[in-house]
Design goal:
single chain, Rossmann fold, 7-stranded parallel beta sheet, 3-stranded mixed beta sheet, 44% helix, 16% strand, binds nicotinamide-adenine-dinucleotide, binds thymidine-5'-diphospho-beta-D-xylose
Length: 336
Amino acid sequence: MRLLVTGGAGFIGSNFVRWTRESRPEVSMTVLDSFTYAAQGMNLEVDGWLAANGDHVSVVVGDIRDRTLVDSLVAVHDVVIHFAAESHNDASLENPSEFVDTNVNGTLSVLEAVRAHGKRLHHISTDEVFGDLSLDAPAFTHSSPYRPSSPYSASKASADLLVGAWVRSFGVRATVSICSNNYGPFQHVEKFIPRQITELLAGRVPRIYGTGANVRDWIAVDDHSSALWRIIDAGQIGRTYLVGTHNERSNLEVVAALLEVFGRPAGDIEFVRDRTGHDVRYALDTSLIFDDLGWRPAPRSFRRELESLVSWYADHEAWWREAKTTSEERYRRLGH
Ligand code: NAD
Ligand code: TDX
């Protein structure tokens, strides 16, 4: 199988490419990525990975909005998995246009190419398209209405609607997955867990937005990859699969666990300006992917996962140091 991976240099995309190489050696991959700030240099090159796997993985530097480029790449691949997006909520509040342009027009470009060439598409979405839940509400289901809160989630919701329309109107063979918050190596230091780990590594304190009562369902990025392959292999065309692990934690709970890992006092926290429109909680009803596709996340201890993530960030400071400086400058300006 020849697989085109848009956004394959980003956090989830690069983990997916590495996971696929390990678990599906018969698959050859082309990564299409424009290397925005989020790609943070060459994620795939870290620890010599791309050099060792270059016979099976090639990288094209380009923009998903470049219709000619996308069309020519889709033509020579069997399946497209579409990760590329602007992905950070705080950034979308500062620069919404870039999010609409990349996430909506970029998805349109991918859709037009798979339509022209009759290729299979898997589109990556997010739990944020449903808006948020109160702390005690039942999880989002397939029939929950789309009610996105931020420019980021609105642009992802818009992209999903385009995919649904291309399936119905043009018979495009596409599936969609909606996943909860991922954690793992190569996540940009602007995101919650890497930001707190790198603050702690620098001897500073974690920064919590608002009260820290907001809840996220944390999934290991490798579990996301295994779910994506179940859907590519056995997913029903036109379906949207909700991918989560029922690992709900408040932001305060996550930070408390990190403080313990570092042996720091529980009160070492700075509460900072809240995010505008901050979603309270996300949780997903995963019965479709559990029951119909038989997918399950690997058994994991979240505490041990955090410990190994701390070690990974400690060992890869050269990879995140420059991005950290830029990211913290922006957060200072925003009062976060
Ligand atoms: P990321 O920001 O780390 O990676 C995005 C990648 O897309 C980067 O490599 C970037 O260079 C690339 N990109 C951006 N604009 C592009 C363009 N115009 N052309 C080509 N490439 C471009 O994001 P991530 O966290 O890895 O998220 C990947 C996907 O998963 C996104 O679609 C996101 O909405 C979705 N998602 C993320 C999470 C999460 O917890 N991080 C959860 C659910 C869904
Ligand atoms: O310093 C911080 N302090 C803090 O309290 C940061 C950076 C975040 N937060 C809070 C905001 C959220 O409640 O932590 C939570 C997680 O924040 P983010 O890492 O920015 O993630 P979130 O907004 O939940 O969105 C993530 O999950 C869904 C991804 O970034 C999206 O790409 C994905 O679609």
